[in-house]
Design goal:
Blueprint lengths: L1 H41 L11 H11 L3 H26 L3 H20 L3 H26 L2 H11 L1
Helix pairs in contact: 1-2, 1-3, 1-5, 2-3, 3-4, 4-5
Amino acid sequence: MAATAVHNTGIQDFQIRARIRSGADWFIWIGALSIINSVILTYGGNFHFIFGLGCTELVSAVAANLPAGAMVAGWVVNIILAGVFGVFGKFGRDAQKWAFYAGMLFYIMDALLVFMFRDWLGLAFHAYALYRIYTGLKAIGDLDEGSPAALAARAGTAA
């Protein structure tokens, strides 16, 4: 019977870790698609993915109307912004709560920028992405509850 409980806990642990990775991967996709949006805007494209950051689109739009040196500076800023999201994704995949909290705060601030520009579809996507990221954060709590120390504590109080 104990082997079954350990096996089930192993499966549950795998499923929880998959939810954490899935939530954290949203940061990586958002950062990557933000760079793609910047490329599209820089080369005169007239569309964008709703999946990117509003702040990188703003930087690209401003830099596109300035001299070439400013465009390079805009690219540097956009790469840094997207890279920060990559960092959130990397540490989020390692179940670091701070990465989820900081990334969600940053993305909420970006949602406010999207709201200011009345991009309703982009705002709706921000809300959905925040929900999906939150499911990864919540899974960290589920993982903590299923840790050997937590299981031993519950077993001790149940006896």
